[in-house]
Design brief:
CATH topology of the largest domain in chain A: Cytochrome Bc1 Complex, Chain A, domain 1
Strand order of the largest sheet of chain A: 1-2-6-3-5-4
Largest interface: A-B, 80 and 80 residues
Oligomer: homodimer
Number of strands of chain A: 11
Order of helices and strands of chain A: EEEHHEEHHHHHEHEEHHEEHHHHHEH
Distance between the termini of chain A: 46 Å
CATH superfamily of the largest domain in chain A: Metalloenzyme, LuxS/M16 peptidase-like
Radius of gyration of chain A: 22 Å
CATH architecture of the largest domain in chain A: 2-Layer Sandwich
CATH class of the largest domain in chain A: Alpha Beta
Largest sheet of chain A: 6 strands, mixed
Strand content of chain A: 15-25%
Helix content of chain A: 40-55%
Shape of chain A: globular
Amino acid sequence: MSQDPTPRLTTLPNGLRIVTRQMPGLHSAALGIWVSAGGRNERADQNGIAHFLEHMAFKGTATRSALQIAEAIEDVGGYINAYTSRDATAYYVRVLEDDVDLAFDVISDIVLNPVFDDREIEVERGVILQEIGQAMDTPDDIIFDWLQEAAYPDQPIGRTILGPAERVSSFGRSDLAGFVSENYGPGQMVVAAAGSVDHDRIVRLAEKVLGHIAPRPQGAREGARWQGLETRTVKPLEQAHFALALEGPGYLAPDFYAAQIFSSALGGGMSSRLFQKIREERGLCYTIFAQSGFHDDTGMLTIYAGTGAEDLGDLATLTIDEIKRATEDMSEAEIARAKAQLRAGLLMGLESPSGQAERMARSLAIWGRVPDAAEVAERIAAVTAADVRTHAERLLATARPALALYGPVEGAPTLQALSERLAA
Amino acid sequence: MSQDPTPRLTTLPNGLRIVTRQMPGLHSAALGIWVSAGGRNERADQNGIAHFLEHMAFKGTATRSALQIAEAIEDVGGYINAYTSRDATAYYVRVLEDDVDLAFDVISDIVLNPVFDDREIEVERGVILQEIGQAMDTPDDIIFDWLQEAAYPDQPIGRTILGPAERVSSFGRSDLAGFVSENYGPGQMVVAAAGSVDHDRIVRLAEKVLGHIAPRPQGAREGARWQGLETRTVKPLEQAHFALALEGPGYLAPDFYAAQIFSSALGGGMSSRLFQKIREERGLCYTIFAQSGFHDDTGMLTIYAGTGAEDLGDLATLTIDEIKRATEDMSEAEIARAKAQLRAGLLMGLESPSGQAERMARSLAIWGRVPDAAEVAERIAAVTAADVRTHAERLLATARPALALYGPVEGAPTLQALSERLAA
């Protein structure tokens, strides 16, 4: 792990944090601003505003038009983008090393100084309505939104990021400005950079541009309450899309690493149980996987597969049976393999500037610090088979699963039936 | 470009080539075998066999079961995968540096020694039929297959990679073995590795395992004949998916770089004409882009967008108008920006082992050599505005466009109407 110089962290007096990691040998850099404000910070009447705001950041600032923003970065061959999740909104750039100052200037400008021009709001509303249409035409994407809603109904964490079309159609300038003033305080922002970057230089840039913003309290987030419902959307698609979730631990829970090991062994790769049993032995699907997702106070073990309408029943019951079996007889060899996969993923991730900037920003937001790779590798290594078993028992002991179905799913088993099979 | 030690190339007596690039500072590696055999090497009655073979490589060799193949790589935290294109089939692994020998052993085993067990063929047939279903549920993926078919009807280059379900249902062991013996000769194979790798060591491994394969002639490929037809598939999707193509140059043509500059300025980024006019000014779509694709003897400028059924007519005619305008008044600033984007993409790509292994293998297959980054950067820099204009005129002078439509597209403009508008 000689390639892991400890990340450097500076906190400005107003609470804004700057974290960087110099990666020797690289001649490019990734840089961004991560704001701890996403779907979970929205009230019901605001659903979709965090994402709408992310779009508007690119539509003009006090000194740059939308075209000038794009040109500033693309003139030097860079790449600029953003995303909104339940927990955060991220604005980031990838550039060659000579253009890091420029990248910081543009990213900080779009986050701090968007103008919310009324005409641009109207146009962008159309773009977002198209984005909602595109999501509907991507079954293996939208199904995860529905699964989230079924797991946490009527809560900020359960609502979609894009928001319902009716809300998107009604947002205006004051809604955007209101969300910024409630959620975009310096204590909620992390500047993260990795690659060919100089920490002190980025700190100076951040002090100049972001140091003067007054701290403000961030509104409390509503705690997650897992429910475990079922949602089924019948449509004449080619495949029946199936997504199932169990409540798992959050980032802060002691079984955070055990959860990742369990999901990896269950459905993380080609040697995993779900892949072997359902695809390799039975040929019932092309895609099947399990993954762990985390928030601070809750998390999810998610399984997804796409199959033919006539095979959905088999696939669903086989999946339930594999989850059960995995909680009972996970072998030392499977656990060792899952640990090797987590460790290698961590080490390979150290070689990507974008991945590093993202990991550091998220670590800060979650734990208030950035564990170095050696520490994370030790924590992974320390997980025992007993820890994985304890985690698995906890998974089964919680509330019933959430289920989302999309496509020719009229004849799919009910959540009730699957829950009973899992509990039997 | 200090990070670009010239790639090292060795050709074995039987014609097999080994190309590697040591990337200082990295502790992982990407390694694979690229075979110059894909959809273009299939006769009509073989359509889908190259891809079926790629799947069967993972289903067992003389000494490893499917599970053992997956476990061998995943036990050390590695990642193994493959893809089939019209021109090639690639089998590749990403591992930490200590596991490069193992990675070579597994990859060469699955390429050389697949057993084509009858039961495994039956199971995998089901998997591929599911993969076809999944592709149909991914409109912004399948539409490019249909576009290719409309551009080059009734030719190997125009057929889909997955093949039609009827053919996939009929393939057996002798079809697979036949395709291997016709197309998997050592002269058609490149071993490519990048990252923390030692050239001489990989050459020794390759000599031992691949050095004894007897050379064999590769069957001639049918030359591409652009036609430019229209295909429209009506289905109740949320969006009308639109894809248009013009015939462009192949890899070997003098306007290879001019084509990339033109497509980048037309629709390659947020500052591009299509993005600005159609998304930023009009809000008619979320996704719109132009890209260049290449084969040795032909190529394509492709434009894709997804929009609402009621906006499809506007989007289509605006797109045609922007293509026309771009051929007439592309500015020096736009050309300079597109060149900066190509150059930066090249330099950033040097920092990714997977990207490097892929680039080297493809360069060898196409040009018989691997130009280093400095040479490519020079070629990009040398393109003039006049070169781009000449390229654009050639684009318009060729046969009419190909058009693919998917979704609620009953009311879409015809190819005839769009062609006339483009020619007007």
